[in-house]
Specification:
The complex is a heterodimer of chains A (291) and B (392). Chain A is mainly α and 291 residues long. Chain A has eleven helices and two strands, in the order H-H-H-H-E-E-H-H-H-H-H-H-H. At the A-B interface, helix 1 and helix 10 of A face strand 7, helix 8 and helix 9 of B.
Chain lengths: 291, 392
């Protein structure tokens, strides 16, 4: 039971991170590799807000959400927009986003130094609950609640709102969307902002969950995020949610039943098996090229 | 009369060095400079005109930065005190290996070619395993000031260390903890992608067997891991009398915090990586009851230690940790070795380091044993009220 909860908590953070990843990919067909550095940057900023600014943990979350959104706009403006008309825009954007990620991390190191940062002692409420014999902290419940709320909110926005319709139109065919009067540039920028805001919140939640923020934390989760969106089906939002939880649970149960040394082998082995059986991912649709 | 006599001795010594450097022929750097690197007198009266070039390779950025920073402070404090003492002066160059063994190799090559008399470092054992052979091949003595993994000094006869090995500290830690807590069954956890923590694990395993303590389960993690809940839940299921953990401080803090969160309140026995005041600073309440064997007893009342504590506090406005103490001691030992023969070339330094015996230091009475490893008393500590206290 405890292990199940452990897996769900870590899995929900993977999912939140991956949803930001997959949103940009699904709608804009771009892979934004600066996403992991947004994850790391926001963790550091979140800690700074709490440690220096004296904000409570919960007040810091919306601020970080906005910070992430702004970073997303910057990423879109610097790394993607100038290259969008190139024939190789996919690769060019991929590579320029890696460059931007490197710069972000270097700026972080300049600002915060190489040390691991933590929230000041006593910034978490130490309320604990016992659920069916398992220990759960209030912080963990909030992490799960925030992740789920954001994911549900996003799904609602994409499927039900005007902005969401615009996004889906752009995803379908940017040129046609433009002809029909959708402001493609604005939709693109919004998608980046939302994606990075989600990544930013995931970063702070991760830092809260393990009370650790390191410069390399983005790199550690990058691979997992990619695995999650591939397992879930590239571009599928519910797929990323399921993929994230699945990866979290796979890691935890690998420890319990097989051995801790095998954790990554199992988790990434699962990825291979799913790809062999369902190349389009669990909830991905096979792309049909129409003439 | 006496003066001339000394002159003769010095001249003779110099002649020997010239001969030695002739016979060793093709060697570059150090041996060509050896003529200038010897002086008159012994011990406190030794005077060497030229500055003695020393290199230090520390991890000032990256995962091990918190250790490297302490070491840098320890070395700089010692260098400052030695400069005030005079007679032998040092030109100490500290370089950052960024916690990357490949960077360490480059720096070692650079120091070997620059003709330094000795290289201090590197910070981590897994870097030492890769870079020390370069110094050994180049004939440059190395003094490790924090390498505690097994086999480091087996690399060759130029490799020394002033850091007590885990193999020396851990059996004492386990014996003491078994006696204090009546351990019967423990769970062992270690990060299996680091030479240092892996050799720590082997020492723990052997010590636990010697004490007849059952190892209910062995769990591994990666040194980059920060979420240990799955492992800890697994460990908890075994109902151990203690957790025995070999990991670096970056892993130690979240591990200990999460263990307490999950309601694991048995003692946590850590390796050398846990021996860091940040454990209490960042872990807070959760760090209580952590047991760590250490090479340096910060509460020791020997005069060298008291002087060191005071000087460090005055200089940096912070309490030193073991890494600072060992770094400080390292430079002091080098000074002691150089003064014993009043010669600072690579070969003399190598010989003199090997002959260090019962030197009073911050770490206690210090000797280099026949394996070029450190020999001095260890201490077993437990965290109580946010501080390391001697476990008794």
């Amino acid at each position: 039971m405890q292990q199940l909860l452990n897996g769900i908590f870590i899995g929900s953070i993977y999912a939140l991170f991956a949803i930001g990843f997959t949103l940009v990919f699904g709608i804009l067909d771009r892979l934004n590799l600066a996403h992991p550095s947004v994850f790391a940057a926001s963790a550091f900023v979140g800690i700074e807000l709490v440690a220096r600014g004296g904000m409570s943990l919960w007040a810091a979350l919306p601020v970080v959400f906005v910070f992430g959104a702004v970073l997303g706009l910057i990423i879109e403006r610097l790394a993607f927009r100038p290259l969008k008309n190139r024939a190789d825009a996919h690769f060019a954007g991929l590579i320029s986003s890696i460059a931007l990620a490197g710069m972000l991390i270097a700026l972080l190191q300049w600002r915060y130094g190489p040390d691991t940062r933590r929230f000041p002692a006593g910034s978490f409420p130490d309320t604990r609950y016992e659920v069916a014999g398992a220990q759960v902290t209030l912080v963990q419940i909030v992490i799960l609640a925030v992740s789920l709320t954001l994911m549900v909110g996003l799904t609602y926005m994409v499927t039900r709102t005007r902005l969401g319709r615009g996004m889906r139109a752009v995803a379908e065919n940017p040129t046609a969307a433009r002809v029909l009067g959708v402001n493609v540039d604005r939709v693109t920028a919004t998608v980046f902002a939302i994606s990075s805001a989600l990544g930013a919140v995931a970063g702070v939640l991760f830092a809260i969950n393990v009370n650790t923020a390191q410069l390399g934390m983005g790199i550690a989760i990058e691979l997992k995020g990619l695995a999650v969106i591939i397992v879930g089906g590239m571009g599928s939002l519910p797929g990323a949610l399921i993929g994230g939880l699945l990866l979290g649970l796979a890691e935890v149960f690998a420890v319990q039943y097989i051995g801790s040394s095998w954790r990554d082998v199992i988790a990434f082995g699962l990825l291979f098996i799913i790809l062999l059986l369902r190349p389009q991912g669990l909830l991905g649709a096979r792309k049909v090229r129409e003439v | 009369m006496r003066h001339t006599k000394l002159h003769t001795v010095a001249a003779a010594t110099a002649a020997v060095f010239v001969l030695a450097s002739c016979s060793s022929g093709g060697e570059s750097g150090g041996s060509s400079a050896s003529g200038e690197l010897s002086g008159e007198g012994t011990g406190d009266s030794c005077t060497i005109d030229a500055e003695v070039p020393l290199g230090a390779v520390l991890s000032l950025t990256g995962a091990a930065a918190s250790y490297g920073e302490s070491q840098q402070r320890g070395l700089e404090l010692a260098a400052k005190e030695l400069a005030e003492k005079g007679g032998v002066t040092y030109d100490l160059t500290i370089e950052d290996d960024q916690t990357d063994p490949r960077q360490g190799i480059t720096l070692f090559e650079q120091f070997v070619n620059d003709g330094v008399s000795l290289i201090i470092g590197p910070t981590l054992s897994n870097a030492a395993v890769q870079s020390d052979p370069i110094a050994q091949e180049g004939g440059v003595p190395v003094l490790g000031i924090s390498n505690t993994a097994a086999g480091i000094t087996d690399i060759g006869d130029y490799i020394f260390r002033d850091s007590l090995t885990e193999q020396a500290v851990i059996p004492q830690t386990i014996a003491k903890a078994t006696e204090e807590f009546g351990l019967e069954k423990v769970v062992v956890m270690y990060s299996n992608d680091d030479a240092f923590t892996e050799s720590g694990y082997e020492a723990f395993e052997a010590a636990l067997q010697d004490e007849g303590v059952e190892i209910a389960d062995t769990l591994t993690f990666s040194k980059a891991d920060t979420d240990f809940r799955a492992l800890l839940t697994e460990a908890q299921g075994q109902e151990p009398d203690a957790l025995v953990v070999s990991g670096l401080i970056e892993a130690a803090i979240p591990l200990v915090t999460q263990a307490r969160e999950l309601g694991i309140d048995v003692p946590i026995i850590g390796g050398n990586g846990f021996n860091n005041p940040r454990l209490m600073a960042d872990g807070g309440e959760a760090a209580e009851g952590v047991v760590v064997g250490a090479a340096w007893n910060s509460a020791s009342d020997n005069p060298e230690n008291q002087a060191f504590l005071e000087a460090y506090e005055a200089e940096y406005d912070a309490a030193p940790d073991q890494f600072a103490a060992q770094a400080y001691t390292g430079l002091m030992l080098i000074d002691e070795a150089i003064r014993s023969e009043c010669a600072a070339d690579r070969e003399s330094l190598k010989t003199a380091l090997g002959e260090l015996e019962d030197v009073p230091t911050v770490l206690g009475e210090f000797s280099i044993d026949e394996n070029r490893d450190a020999e001095h008393p260890a201490v077993v500590q437990v965290v109580e009220g946010g501080k390391f206290a001697v476990l008794e």
